[in-house]
Amino acid sequence: MFMDNTEQQPGRRSFFEQRARLQVSLNASRVNDTATRFNCLDDARKKVVFILANDAASRIAGLPQLTRSHLNLAFADLTEAEQTCLMMGIKRLSEFAAAMPWEFEDYAAPCAEVQALRDKPPEPDKPTN
């Protein structure tokens, strides 16, 4: 009635092998997507990422500082350590963006309450008592 451990192992092993292949594929896909997006950035945006990456690199031993000479390089032309540093900068940028308060009125796409106030017709003059 009970399954023997030897019968479970091949299925379990194939599951972990397939899981490992999928994780490698997913990580490669994420890196390629990040590389494509990074290569499309202009110099000003790359500088912002570099500033955040260098701040992160100063706190972690072994990560290099990104310099002006790296601005013109494509993601694939960076060394693995430089790519790691750049990814840290992108991560810090996303953390910074998530922490930003977005409590101002958005005139391009206002929330329903603001739009209702804008579209509300003016009230007619009422007689005073």
Strand content is: under 5%
Form type: extended
Total count of domains: 1
**Helix segment tally:** 4
Note poorly predicted spans. Answer: none
Helix content bin? 55-70%
How many β-strands, per DSSP? 0
Distance between the termini: 91 Å
The average pLDDT score comes to 81
Order of helices and strands: HHHH
- What structural class do the secondary elements suggest? mainly alpha
Task: Summarize it.
The protein is mostly helical. It has one domain (10-119). It has four helices and no strands.
Description of the molecule:
The chain is mostly helical and 129 residues long. The chain has one domain (10-119). The chain has helices at residues 5-39, 43-59, 80-99, 112-119. Helix 2 crosses helix 3 (80-99). The model has no long low-confidence stretch (mean pLDDT 81).
Features:
129 residues
Explain the layout of strands and helices.
Layout: H1 5-39, H2 43-59, H3 80-99, H4 112-119
